[in-house]
Structures are given as structure tokens and as C-alpha cells.
């Protein structure tokens, strides 16, 4: 898949855009494409269209991919529209408005922690009609990371323990909540849960995690393009 995308990147179908835009203007364009791509992903995993239709759509998608030309971001490059760590991440697979993979989850401060709301769709399915367990882990991991940031200790997951109490329904508004439960030097303990929006009392998935703030040398090595590292 990567090699075919790389091939497409060398084929210029539309003129390259100028490099600098207002961040809000750029974010709106990224979010608009992300929205349409999520609709495409959803339609793709729900459709019962004929093989002929699938081949026709495949051709159309291939030609669209060829239009995403220009410079490609390097592996560890932080997009100029992002605020890392602790702010908007346009291509996060959990919160990113520009990600075709993200639900996307909306994060807000809440009750001494952070809350995340989203709806999982067919593309996030595990058991028929329910969310994939890895998806629940990803939602909680991300939100627990946001809880660390909200507590003033940006940190990375070193341990995550999940308990799956009930299946997570698809096509249903969900609410996740995470909060820091303890800080010891660079080690941050965090708890998180997923419920439905309708019933906050019934925990579907619960998580306990240990997050660690990298020491400055490690942070510099991991994130060389982060200003100040
Ligand atoms: C300014 C820049 C800020 C950057 C802030 C980044 C924010 C980032 C947000 C990304 C967006 C969110 C996304 C969702 C969260 C992910 O998904 S993060 C991705 C998944 N996690 C990873 O890839 C982390 C992999 N691990 C590592 O790279 C390194 O372990 C770390 C986290 C950089 C820490 O390395 P280090 O600074 O060298 O720390 P180290 O000395 O090994 O350990 C520090 C302490 O933690 C303890 N510890 C280590 N592992 C464990 C463990 N499994 N259990 C218990 N304790 C442990 C150690 O024992 C040590 O304790 P003491 O011996 O000092 O008492």
C-alpha cells in the first residue's frame, strides 16, 4: 500500500499549493477532507455493491489519491497545524479531524479529568454490531494521555490494563472519561472508563494505566522537531 501511495506522490495531476496558509484555514480544509474520507470508509465497509461498482469506485479513488501531490511529511515531523504535546492533532487516529481512521473523539475538560465523546462505526467493528477491543483500548489510551496533559504532566503510556465488562455498541453516542490518580516523580497513574452517553453508570470498559514523562534527553531524541527540545 505504501509503495503505491509513494508512486502516486510522484505523479503531479494538479499544481502544487503554496506552502503557507492561515492555520485555521488549513485545519478547515484538512477536516473537510477527513470528513469525506470517513464517509467513504463508512460506505466502503457497509456497501453491498456489485464487483463492477467496486472496480469503478476503485478507479475513482486511485485517481483522487494521485491528486494529493507535493511534499510529504517526514516520519517524525510535527505538522505545522498541530499543537504538540497537549493540543490539536489533526491526524490523530483517535481525535484527528483530518484522519480517515478516527471516530473522531472530541475531548473536553470534565470533573477533575477529561471526557471524550464519539460514535464508533462499522469500520471499528469487532464482534458483529460492537466495537473492536483494540479500538476501546486506543480511545482510552489517547484520552488517558490527554488526562496527563491536563494535569500538567505530558507522558507516554508504559503500561495499560483493560477490563472489558460489556460490549461497546456501534452507532451509539459514547462517553469516555479519564483522570490522573497519582503522580510519583515522572510516573503518572491514570484511570479511564467508557460508557454510553445515555448511561454513565454502566461501565463498558475500564482501564488503569501507567504513563511516564520522558526525561529531557529522551524527549529530545524521540521528538527532534518539537520546539524547545
Ligand atoms: C516535552 C515532551 C513531552 C513528551 C510527552 C509525550 C506526549 C505524547 C502524547 C502522544 C499522544 C498520546 C497517545 C496516547 C499515549 C500513547 O500511545 S504513547 C505511545 C505508546 N508508548 C510508548 O511508545 C512509550 C515507550 N516507552 C518509552 O519510550 C520509554 O519508556 C519512556 C516513556 C520514554 C520513558 O523512558 P525514560 O525517560 O528513559 O524513563 P525510564 O527511566 O525508563 O523510566 C522512568 C520511570 O518509569 C518507570 N517505568 C518504566 N516503565 C514502567 C512500567 N511499564 N510500569 C511501571 N513503571 C515503569 C521506571 O521504572 C522509572 O522509574 P524509577 O526507576 O525512576 O523509579
TrEMBL record:
Q: Which UniProt keywords apply?
A: Apoptosis, Cell membrane, Cell projection, Cytoplasm, Fatty acid metabolism, Hydrolase, Lipid metabolism, Membrane, Transit peptide
Q: Which reaction does it catalyse?
A: (9Z)-octadecenoyl-CoA + H2O = (9Z)-octadecenoate + CoA + H(+); hexadecanoyl-CoA + H2O = hexadecanoate + CoA + H(+); tetradecanoyl-CoA + H2O = tetradecanoate + CoA + H(+); (5Z,8Z,11Z,14Z)-eicosatetraenoyl-CoA + H2O = (5Z,8Z,11Z,14Z)-eicosatetraenoate + CoA + H(+)
Position of the signal peptide: none
Species name for this entry?
Streptomyces regalis
| Protein's name in the database | Acyl-coenzyme A thioesterase THEM4
Q: Where in the cell is it found?
A: Cell projection, Ruffle membrane; Cytoplasm; Membrane
Region (Disordered) location: 1-25
The processes (GO biological process) annotated in the record are: fatty acid metabolic process
Q: Does the keyword field hold Hydrolase?
A: yes
The family database entries (InterPro entries) matched by this protein are listed as:
HotDog_dom_sf, THEM4/THEM5_acyl-CoA_thioest, Thioestr_dom
Amino acid at each position: 500500500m505504501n509503495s503505491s501511495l509513494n508512486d502516486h506522490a510522484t505523479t503531479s495531476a494538479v499544481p502544487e499549493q503554496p506552502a503557507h496558509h492561515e492555520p485555521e484555514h488549513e485545519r478547515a480544509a484538512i477536516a473537510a477532507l477527513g470528513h469525506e474520507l470517513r464517509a467513504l470508509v463508512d460506505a466502503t465497509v457497509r456497501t453491498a455493491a456489485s464487483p463492477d461498482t467496486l472496480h469503478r469506485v476503485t478507479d475513482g479513488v486511485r485517481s483522487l489519491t494521485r491528486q494529493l501531490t507535493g511534499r510529504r511529511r517526514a516520519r517524525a515531523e510535527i505538522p505545522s497545524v498541530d499543537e504538540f504535546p497537549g493540543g490539536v492533532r489533526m491526524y490523530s487516529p483517535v481525535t484527528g479531524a483530518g484522519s480517515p481512521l478516527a471516530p473522531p473523539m472530541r475531548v473536553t475538560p470534565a470533573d477533575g479529568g477529561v471526557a471524550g465523546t464519539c460514535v464508533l462505526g462499522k469500520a471499528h467493528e469487532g464482534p458483529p454490531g460492537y466495537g473492536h477491543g483494540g479500538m476501546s483500548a486506543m480511545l482510552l489510551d489517547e484520552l488517558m494521555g490527554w488526562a496527563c496533559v491536563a494535569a500538567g504532566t505530558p507522558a507516554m503510556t508504559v503500561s495499560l490494563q483493560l477490563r472489558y465488562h460489556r460490549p461497546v455498541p456501534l452507532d451509539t453516542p459514547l462517553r469516555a472519561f479519564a483522570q490522573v490518580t497519582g503522580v510519583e516523580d515522572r510516573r503518572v497513574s491514570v484511570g479511564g472508563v467508557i460508557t454510553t452517553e445515555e448511561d454513565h453508570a454502566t461501565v463498558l470498559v475500564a482501564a488503569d494505566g501507567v504513563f511516564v514523562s520522558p526525561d529531557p534527553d529522551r524527549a529530545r531524541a524521540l521528538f527532534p522537531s518539537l520546539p524547545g527540545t
